[in-house]
Amino acid sequence: MIGLYLHIPFCRRKCPYCDFYSVSGDAAAFDAYTEALCRRIRSYAEKLSVPADTLYFGGGTPSILGAERLVRLAAVARKYFGLNHAEITLEVNPEKQDIDFAALRKGGFNRISIGLQSANDNELRQLGRLHDVQQAVRCIAQAKAAGFTNLSLDLMIATPEQTKDSLRRSIDFCAEQGAAHISAYLLKVEPNTPYARRRDTAFLCDDERQAELYLLAVEQLKSYGYRQYEISNFAKEGFEGRHNLKYWHDEEYLGLGPSAHSFIGGRRFYYDRSFDSFYQDITTPDGSGGDAEEFLLLGLRLCEGVTHERYRRRFGTDIPPSVIQQAQRLLPTGYLTLTPEGIALTPQGFLVSNAVIAFLLDT
After folding, report:
1. pLDDT for 305-316, tens place per residue?
2. Are β-strands 2-8 and 253-256 bridged in parallel, bridged antiparallel, or unpaired?
3. Is residue 137 a part of any domain in this protein?
4. At 191, is the pLDDT very low, low, confident or very high (cuts 50, 70, 90)?
5. Residue 280 burial class via C-beta count within 10 angstroms: exposed 0-12, middle 13-18, buried 19 and up
6. CA dist., res. 294 & res. 110, Å (int)
7. Are 49 and 166 found together in one domain?
8. Do 232 and 304 lie in a common domain?
9. How do 181-186 and 233-235 pair as beta strands?
10. Measured distance CA(145)–CA(102) in Å, rounded
């Protein structure tokens, strides 16, 4: 089964670190976009004839569409892609509590991902967020009252003015709120964002500081019972994000919307960052996918790493001896573990994952 991703490219205001494709919009724009998504869902379902078992609404700020439009999109996706026993996730920003969580729950949504980012009001202002901590508390409470138990909270690490103590308090907050899943990711400054233009002011953490904060988060989340399963993702037992795991397991998915990417039938393609390309259904090829190198590159983002068994199921052989030899050379660094089962990176290795993975694949 494939994963289905719907990109909702609308926001009330763009954050200074964000490079995701998003624009402002009104009710008319929301209606037109919802209709276009419904058409694309139907047309791709007819072409692919394959069911989906995850549905993820990302953005942008997907909740800005409102429950009625979102439930309609979920219903159309269910009609054409099955979605039996599916994980259906909606990203929500907590700045404005006008989302009808009860309607979403009734409409089949079963996972909410809330863009908390920090439990410190000053840090939220530095990040350009529109909400404060109390608004986040109310948003979480409303989702729980509607019956949502699979709640994920986003945290950013190494943000301007963040300290070890403030990061600890943010993690404490997530645990106290009963989050089942936490995405804790290092702030990455993307080109052509306001943050990128401010880099010369040295307001960001250096590499050493980033490493300290990341490893602190890993240990504290572990103490609360959140098992790390991917570079930036931690979950209580059984609450790992099924949709995102499709990416790291190199499984197939269909992305609909401006800037959305897909991997179907061994082929990668995407829509450009414009409404015109999506409305006209013009996709851009992005090469083939699913080969051994890609499988290793993506799988090594997971704490489970790449096992001989999983590699064998895909390619019919164990992990190549040349890759194992490269891993043996890296063992003294502490960046990875090498067992009879396979290769996995450590938290220290995740901090330099690009370099480690490039070394392993340099054969």
Report:
1. 999 999 999 999
2. parallel
3. yes
4. confident
5. exposed
6. 31
7. yes
8. no
9. antiparallel
10. 8
